[in-house]
Amino acid sequence: TIDDWSEAFFAIDKDLETRRRYMRRFKFNPNSQILEVGCSNGVNLEALESLGYSNLVGTDISIDLLSKVKKYKCVCSDICKLGIEDSSFDEIYCRGFLHHINTAEVFSEMVRVLRQQGLIHIVEPWPTIPRKIADFLTFYILPYFSKTLYYRRVVISYEWKEYSDWLRRCKKIMSEELRRNNLKVVYRCCGLINLYMTVQKAG
């Protein structure tokens, strides 16, 4: 159920230092207006603030999740129709979000609210060999020995169709969307299980 998924997801994602580690890969400007899409309950906004960034806004479609965000300005909206003025932000942070939605609509909307030469920082699952091994172990062996991996299995099982479809098509999707939206890759790193990428809007 969605309640099981929610409990498992937040059990996995509760460590502040893990979230900081993702963000340190990117070069945020301390003076930037930063938007997080799919901000959930604000855990990534908290991590950004702890790294010294203060001009933070989050957006999510779930009013229940946003009700848990007490400290930051947030907008409850569909990412495909944000209701935010054009060219409002210098940088956008997008972690583990693209594989859930219509990527074409999301990219065009992110580009719309981004200022010229603005940056989108992306963290997404990537079809690496270590990820394939991790998924196999998560489903068939290690959940019986590790609570964290049990929670990971719950999360992936709930979103399996979206997750597996993304892993099959992600390289093509990303290539098409970068080309369609005239986005330039300024940083790209393929980690053990994730893609880390920064793309820049034409200016």
Distance between the first and last residues' Cα: 44 Å
Task: Characterize the largest beta sheet: strand count, sense, and whether it forms a barrel.
Answer: 7 strands, mixed
Task: Give the low-confidence spans.
Answer: none
Strand order of the largest sheet: 3-2-1-4-5-7-6
Number of helices: 8
**What is the rounded Rg?**
17 Å
Mean pLDDT: 90
Helix content: 40-55%
Task: Give a verbal description of the structure.
This protein is α/β, with parallel strands linked by helices and 203 residues long. The chain contains eight helices and seven strands, in the order ααβαβαββαβαααββ. A seven-stranded mixed beta sheet has the order 3-2-1-4-5-7-6, with helices on both faces. Helix 4 (63-66) links the parallel strand 2 and strand 3. Helix 1 (2-12) packs across helix 7 (147-158) and helix 2 (16-24) crosses helix 3 (43-50). The longest helix is centred in the last third of the chain and has 21 residues, at 160-180. The termini are far apart.
Helix and strand topology:
Blueprint: H1 2-12, H2 16-24, E1 34-37, H3 43-50, E2 56-60, H4 63-66, E3 73-76, E4 89-95, H5 103-113, E5 114-125, H6 129-140, H7 147-158, H8 160-180, E6 183-190, E7 194-201
Parallel strand pairs: 1-2, 1-4, 2-3, 4-5
Antiparallel strand pairs: 5-7, 6-7
Helix pairs in contact: 1-7, 2-3
